[in-house]
Amino acid sequence: MNRLGIIGIVIVAVFVLVALLAPFIATHDVGATDLLLRYAPPSAAHWFGTDSTGRDIFSRVVFGARISLEVGIVVVAVSAFFGTIAGAIAGYYGGWVDRFLSGYIFNVFLAFPGLLLAIALVAFLGAGLNKLIFALCIIGWVGYARLIRAQVLKVREYDFVNAARALGAGDLRILTVHILPNAIQPLIVQASLGMAGAVLSEASLSFLGLGVPPPAPSWGVMIEEARDLSTLQAAPHALIFPGLAIALTVLAFNFIGDGLREYLDPRQRRR
Amino acid sequence: MKRKIFGVLRRIGFLILVVWTVVSLVTLLIELVPGDPATAVLGDQATPEQLAQFRARHGLDRPPFFFGLPIDENGHRHLRWYGLDNRYTDYWRAILHGDLGASFRTEQPVFDLIKSRYPYTIALALVSMAIAICIAIPLGVIAGKNRGTTTDNGLSVLALIGISLPSFVIGPMLVYIFSVKLRWLGGYGSENWTFIILPAFTLGAALSAILTRMVRSSVIEELGEPYVRTARAKGLSERTVVYKHVLKNGLIPVVTVLGLQLGVLLAGAIITEKIFGWPGLGLLLVEDGIAKRDYSVVQGCVLAISTTYILANTLTDLVYRWLDPRIRVS
Questions:
Q1: In this predicted model, what pLDDT tens digit does every residue of B222-256 receive, in sequence order?
Q2: A21 phi and psi, to 5 degrees?
Q3: What is the pLDDT of residue A271?
Q4: Phi, psi (5° rounding) for residue A111?
Q5: Quick one: pLDDT at residue A107?
Q6: Residues forming a β-bridge with B109
Q7: Is B133 within 8 Å of chain A by CB?
Q8: Is A172 near chain B, with CB under 8 Å?
Q9: Which residues on adjacent β-strands are paired with residue B102?
């Protein structure tokens, strides 16, 4: 894999470790306020300084990694699972099944721009972590479905599929044993880019007040609380550190996605 | 010719089908509200009379769809057929007359609210697209011409950083630097034309990064074509070759991406408008709709944004067919 991909893996590994070991790494209680210590700049006691209510930003960023990665992993796993099923069915059976699924259902979901459907869903369902994950899965699965459909369309024409059919293998067996293992490679790239997207979407929805409710240390919530002009003037670090955490995580997953794409497609390697 | 007309008609028929489904989904979204929408809007202190009056005014006392599963006196659910007399048909009848209902809070017609905010969002999206194109074309050409060099790699990393930096991190920082510290540009609101620059740049940053990558790979691909050799052999300057010949062909795929990205811009505008207090559809959706639980405003905004996106996509598709005759045939 290229150098940037390796850098991405290292950054993601650090974030995963931080998320797993959060209680040991955090230096303060994430909810503990200290009104005498508002807007404190970074120091030995508070590595990333404190926010408008004197909470320790470092500890909150550390625990925020848990929320971001949890949302990312669940959203990518669930959407990839359902997307793969839908895409495999559309690609394998073709005909009216494909016309209905990829021609109609996929396109209806793609007709909502970007985050809009997720925003609308959470607006009506009410805010909360589980509802946010549900909404992100609803908008996420189509990307995987389209990808797998295109792959299956290609792989099902190969000779070994015909051979399996001639030997009497059923549809389910042909799909799961012969086609999907040969179709799934690009899914890894998509999943890695999907992690970047999910982390960004979680932060965006939390920023809009549609994600994890405020006392929780979500990076998006921290930025929302730090973006008013008085806080920005007194303590720009309250915005910069969670902002850096989001940017680094998203960047790392994008690096990995790009690196994997290049690695899996040798034609692109020397470009 | 016949085939061409058939293709366009099919595209339009499909467009109508998708719009119908999207509108239907949005009208039914209110069924997702946990509990009773009237209580959610008026609060727990509302008297039963107030609740009943509110429901009657907004049609919430009527059955939501052609059929339903209401609970009877014994607590059992039964399938019941309501016929044409339901809220879904009400909604459609109203939409076809240009009526999107009244705001749950202010009683203003949602259509008028959207009409007054719509131009702001379109202006923001178009200006950010323009900014993104102005950044992406020169950078993409430079990267593509110097493929594999340090300049190219540096620009690729810069583009990835641009994609990864969320608008709600860049936005407040830009306000702080250019509006509060330097006082060059407007920050929060829409008092004069300078107020559009910061939000448009924030919104366009990610798009410019995506476009730079596209222009780069387009330029690389086109530079390998025989016509480039011919143009160079004619003695044309490298500048003319790249900007007159290569870009003209290389920009066709970029046009498609622009159309698709308009949706990302429209959705991204929701966040950008909140950061900068830009009075477009996004701000209407977030501050008047979601924050105040004004569900009819939310429905109206979601409808306006998604239909704009669908129309823009269809238009891009048609323009793309017209630009590239190869697609018309297949």
A1: 888 888 888 888 888 888 888 888 887 778 778 77
A2: -100, 20
A3: 45
A4: -75, -15
A5: 84
A6: B102
A7: no
A8: no
A9: B109
pLDDT of residue B127: 92
* Chain B residues close to A237, C-beta within 8 Å: none
Residues of chain B contacting residue A254, judged by C-beta atoms under 8 Å apart: 160, 163-164
Given this model, what pLDDT does residue A267 score?
64
Ramachandran quadrant class, A114 (left: phi over 0; alpha: psi -120 to 50; beta: rest): left
Contact B168 A111 (CB under 8 A): no
The pLDDT tens digits of the residues spanning B34-72 come to 777 777 777 777 788 888 887 777 777 777 777 777 776
Given a contact cutoff of 8 angstroms between Cβ atoms, the answer to whether B263 and B312 are in contact is yes
pTM value is: 0.85
Q: CA-nearest residue of chain B to A250?
A: B164
Cα distance between residue B276 and residue B281, in whole Å: 13
Is the complex ipTM higher than 0.90?
Answer: no
The DSSP symbol for B44 reads T
Residue B277's pLDDT band, with cuts at 50, 70 and 90, is: confident
A224 touches chain B (CB under 8 A): yes
Contacts of A2 (CB under 8 A, 6+ apart): A258, A259, A262, A263
Give residue-wise pLDDT tens across range A56-99. Answer: 888 888 888 888 999 999 999 999 999 999 999 998 888 888 88
**Cβ contacts of B106 within 8 Å, gap of 6 or more:** B294
Does the CB of B15 have a partner CB in chain A at under 8 Å?
no
- Token pair 């073709």 is found at A94
Q: Are B145 and B223 in contact (CB under 8 A)?
A: yes
Angstrom distance (rounded) from CA A108 to CA A115:
14
Report how far residue B255's alpha carbon sits from residue A28's, in angstroms, rounded to the nearest whole number.
51
Torsion angle, CA of B270/B273/B277/B283, rounded to 10 degrees?
Answer: -30
Among B258, B261, B285, smallest CA distance to B271 is for: B285
Q: What does DSSP say about strands B67-68 and B80-81: parallel, antiparallel, or unpaired?
A: antiparallel
Cβ–Cβ gap B168/A220 under 8 Å: yes
| Rounded distance between C-alpha atoms, residue B294 and residue B300, angstroms | 10
